[in-house]
Design goal:
The structure is a homotetramer. By secondary structure, the first copy, chain A, is an alpha+beta fold. Helix content of chain A is 33%, strand content 27%. In chain A, strands 4, 5, 6, 12, 13, 14, 15, 16 and 17 form a nine-stranded mixed β-sheet that branches. In chain A, helix 1 (14-25) runs parallel beside helix 11 (337-352). The longest helix of chain A has 16 residues, at 102-117. The radius of gyration of chain A is 21 Å and the shape is globular. Chain A starts with a strand and ends with a helix. Chains A and D meet through helix 9 of A and helix 9 of D.
């Protein structure tokens, strides 16, 4: 392990690993520092939805970012398989956002209109259509928006693919290492101070998910980010119950490979506690069974939780520090970390290489006034 | 491993091991044959309740047997700790059978009367009493029968204690071994035929729980026994939510050591499938939370299932084969296997030693007419 | 679940599932009966090598069968992905059989000659070659036979792919079900007798791996088969240590996806006990580290064992019962179960459909004299 | 959860929990803050030896502290069972330090002399004696020191007992919470700054094991402490192979309840990485089998690792901060954390209550000159 790098990435989750991978492909030397084991927190807890259209239901910079990132997956899939042997388990069978009430029907139809106006595919499915394409769904589903280009991956496999790709390109990894502070000289970052000593670099990226708050506070960047626990569970079935990802009001149901179905997720704000509660399991089971009654007979597998970083305005932070040069932040992806990971890697690498960025990226600026202005302008 | 034994026990669960332990204490040579690993089926799935009074709500031979067995636990506890170092985790804090309706109140009060008439302790607790002794119980519990002498153990530790006690006394064990048939000559059992070869003995005890059916059918003993799957789950709490075992109409809630709480059990008849279903977990969680709302915040641990052997008249089979001498059966304990294991060991050992047995034991005879007659006489 | 099938397959491991899948593709109705959970025994314990050339080092029917089966994998891979979404993780990077002694060098060079004479690719690698292609191997490896067309899959994924493919085609599954006997009438099989009752069929295939012995004995087919325990372990590395499967004298080292390396396997004959011993782990670790010293720093993952069915002449049993029509046997695959699973499915389906089989198939006949004659003739 | 406490303990392992428990028994209000889950690091990884005599082989303050702490266990055992229902699994069957060489024989005999001179029991066992008391030990063991009063507990159960005892007395716990800094005003600690906000207290105890370094550095207390990884494994046997804990030169072998045997531990300095390596497992297995050959047949269970805090002079840090009042440190227990946990709780509580401490406690002072002086004086 060297002691000087082009870039040090603080945080070895899916975001940090995507950034490292992008930088290494561009020829940089990179060190990733992770407080525990890499990819063991939210990155492995996620259901892996690529819900550009289902999660982002209004126009704006996030919708653009999400679509762009989603569209990177097919080639990323091949690239990671080629470089690392990791299969990210990309499934492109679309996503179905369900409606139980007439109000929701109306709302979804408007979403379809706006998405079509921006060139996305989105189709209204009637109760009869749904009966055809997903016959196991409950009759309470009276219609739905089908986004054929949304899909899903294995969140852990994707995160692992980025990390193994980064390793294969010569990236260094330091696990079980807390970063306690940044080394800053004359308004420029010089590296980080970790439990194991100091490590030097031209650039530092803070990509520690919900745990980024600590370092950001030290830098007087108060981003108003907070942790939100999401509990999930999985079951196994011999035959597929559904083919598309189901995006319901209270939960989502994601059919993975080998008969596994993932159901998520609760939203418990302001806690880093990763324990699953009896109530969380009970709540999710009740909702999932109500939408997909055939789930009752599925074999219970296990429950788990992850801590997602939410921001006050719902947009991630992707930017350079306002006053310290060489210091970048990439966090706040909330439920979109998997979806946004490929574009985040490229965008942060562009920033580090001081490439010009699209104006819309200011919506994700660390400066709250900049982002607010941009966001309002875009609406 | 020898090839000739005083007794071969077919089935290495809690019942088989208790019998082996009793016989070895009496000086016999014993071989226990188990199809998989010992104590891995229903014996380790059980919640470990010693519910002599809560489970058996009418007078008769089963009530007598249950009380006798329960009263053996304090000395058994010390004996197994001394001989094997295994702590069976005996907790003697009583059991509370709850009532939500006036009908149930009436029914429980009658149970209290009959149990007191037979010398057992049983106390009626009003809503106010319950508020005092178990303040976390829901207000829907309007009263309850408290049986201070009922208790609980760790089912797996008890089963393991019997097995380690038997091993320490020179008992032989053969795991991963299917018994395919009995060796019978001139109306007398001579041993068993297993996948690994033949093993000879003076006596054979069939103690294979729900899986005993196969051998019994071969012997033209059609006992009308059937398997009943019971699903359970466990949670962890930092502080005790309850002190007594709660015996509700739909489920039971058992506070174990180190903050673990076990909740059981569904009853799915006629299946040997040990998988837990999403429905089973959902059903149990809903009921348990309704009785003990504080469970909501408890940390989810895991879910599992066991297959219990139920009989058509609800009484276990503890007896000698009507025509083949040296052949004994001990199964059909359903939800009372843990409770009845100590007395079953002793009773079967008595039978093998041809000691005279109490008349009431005929209620558990393999001969259905004998047991029916006795049972009716007792009522 | 119906009560009458074209074929009942007894045994839900990789062999049974491949047969069911082949039959279902041909339009039959099939029931698979498994004593425990499907694919949980040797089928999920195997390292998944497709070692047609490394395992079979002399000409004969087994070599032909092995090559034919191996060559089915590329299209099977696509077919199962298409039908079931299961990725069997086929890796076709070849297999390297290592030599440490001059005797072994000589032996391997002869194997190369015979294999080439039969049209297979096989290349001799010198110490210098090996230093180039697998630089992490120990210097004690003085040469090796490289078979570029041998490869590997995930054994569990392949077994699961067959089963899910069979389910998707309408195959029925009965897990946790012991088969206790066959129903035979007038020299013809009529079905099976299971714990849950009788099930009827035109044909029965016994495909229970090492556990087939019990049913075979009932049929007076004494095949001289015996169980051999194989213990394995896995480790994880961030960077690949090897690219090819290493087939050494005492163990094999299989580089799987996502940095996992599998090392197997001990050979403990005449036991069904699936427990891993301290000695087994120690023995394997010592040998694997001696061949691949870089393994020392790899992260320990876990150890497990499987029970493989070995036959006295080392050839599997693939045939029809000599006297009972409609009764077939497919077992005894020992360490080649994964490799031979696709061809076994097709061959047994051909037999059931009474298609003409190649003469060489008599080498796998249930009739020991037939197979011996054939085998000798072929050498 | 309150916002002001008498004492905040930073670190929820066995040491932090023992301190919290002692303080709560004395009537203080206490908050324990733990970065992950309580008792999941070294506290649950330890083998639980109470090796006052085997680990500490020269006179001095550590030997006195160790003996005093060990002698607290019998009453602590009863107290925790009474208060919390946790059984710490105290086994008092002594410890056998083995010798393979004449040099080691000589060394151990001198240790026996010094220990006896201080009133401890210590017995020399010849090869013949060992043959009698531990017949399964290898013949290479030519003698040994037997310390009958040394013993063992379940490390996790003890840690859990302290924590549950503290909870039952009203102690508050905050898990998944990093402490990033101390609040200090006018030379006095006022609380801590955590990710979740500020928490106030009269006293703060840093008891974070190897992870304490970060906070200590902030305080300019450079204690020269470093992490040492210890890898362990466990096996299961049906019959006990040994009765005493075996303390060999390279490893220790600890017979726990229910047939479990723990073997530890490697010593890998300067890493917080908790992964077990293939080399670690191989190294331990080889050594343990060489001492106790019967271990070969034992069933492999699992391997794990813990990070122990070692100090440059081998003595723990138990003291008050030299300049900041109200600030205490309790760490650096290395392999003696379990053994020293009861006395550490009491000693730190005494310090907080400003009770007079024995002069010898200066050996554990945070001031390196004080401790060195004392230590030299004592020798």
């Amino acid at each position: 392990m060297k002691k000087h790098y082009d870039t040090i990435v603080v945080g070895g989750g899916i975001i940090g690993n995507s950034i490292a991978y992008s930088l290494l492909k561009r020829g940089q030397s990179v060190l990733v520092i992770e407080k525990g084991e890499i990819n063991r927190k939210a990155s492995s807890a996620a259901a892996g939805m690529l819900a550009a259209q289902a999660e982002v239901t209004e126009a704006g910079p996030l919708f653009d970012l999400a679509r762009k990132s989603r569209n990177m997956f097919p080639s990323l899939n091949e690239e990671l398989m080629e470089r690392t042997g990791v299969d990210i388990e990309l499934i492109q069978k679309g996503m179905l956002t369900t409606a139980y009430t007439n109000d929701k029907v109306q709302e979804l139809k408007e979403v379809i209109d706006f998405q079509r106006s921006l060139g996305e595919e989105a189709v209204w499915l009637t109760r009869e259509d749904i009966q055809q394409v997903e016959p196991n769904l409950s009759e309470k589903v009276i219609g739905g928006m089908y986004a054929p280009r949304d899909g899903q991956v294995s969140a852990f496999k994707l995160a692992s693919g980025f990390a193994r790709g980064a390793s294969a390109l010569g990236g260094d990894y330091l696990e079980f290492t807390d970063v306690h502070g940044l080394l800053i000289e004359e308004g420029r970052v010089r590296g980080v101070q970790a439990l194991q000593g100091e490590f030097y670099s031209e650039n530092v990226v803070i990509a520690g998910g919900a745990w980024s708050t600590f370092l950001l506070k030290q830098l007087d960047v108060n981003l108003g980010m907070y942790p939100v626990k999401g509990e999930c569970f999985s079951v196994i079935t011999a035959l597929p119950l559904i083919t598309k990802t189901i995006f319901a009001e209270d939960c989502y149901i994601v059919p993975k490979r080998e008969g596994r179905i993932l159901v998520g997720a609760t939203m418990v704000p302001h806690t880093f506690d990763e324990k699953v509660t009896a109530d969380g399991v009970s709540w999710l089971l009740e909702r999932a069974i109500s939408i997909l009654p055939a789930l009752k007979e599925a074999e219970w597998e296990r429950a788990w939780a992850g801590i997602r970083p939410q921001t006050t305005d719902g947009l991630p932070y992707l930017g350079v520090h306002p006053t310290i040069s060489g210091l970048f932040v990439a966090t706040g992806h909330y439920r979109n970390g998997v979806l946004l990971s490929p574009i985040t890697g490229e965008v942060i690498a562009d920033m580090i290489e001081q490439k010009e960025l699209p104006f819309a990226m200011q919506a994700f600026s660390l400066d709250l006034q900049t982002r607010r202005g941009l966001y309002e302008a875009s609406n």
